[in-house]
Amino acid sequence: GVDVLDAPEEGARASYRVFRATRPIRVSSRPRGSRPPVPHAAIGVGAILYGPRGLLLGRHRRGTWELPGGTVEPGESLKETVVRELREETGIEARPSDVRLLGTLLDDVDGVVRMTVAAQVTAWHGEPSDQPDERVGDWRWFPLDRLPENLFVCSAQGLTAWRPDLPVDHTPAHFTPFADHS
Question: DSSP readout, 95-125?
Fold first, then answer.
């Protein structure tokens, strides 16, 4: 700001200008505490691999049919999670640039918000095979008009986000598509 101070006598030619400068006030965030928050959310990915042989699904030990996928690990991007989970569960290799994120699905399981990011894998190499110490195996390709019964809820939700015309019933989830489908 500028304050102008003119001489008190009429006709005096002197005037003064006082300049005021202030620095912007920086705002800081509160540091995180040493204890983690109470768990109330879970985030995972579901990888949709669809090609000439059909849609890839595996059978979980509980008996449900599932897309390859799983939980995001600390420091990992969503695309990196898709690539890692695909390799760990099926032995199939893909690159993050081969992954197209479709959007988020939100639902609630016993008070825990579950967020699943549906992702389409557009290119890959290798054949699916059961991996040691994984809970999902028996990988098979299914035609879209002959999907198996007993789909895992998150997989069913991801499939209908990808292809709303699929005749798959599941509990509702709020789907928010990514604008750029990156």
Answer: -GGGEEEEEEEEEEETTEEEEEEEEEE---B
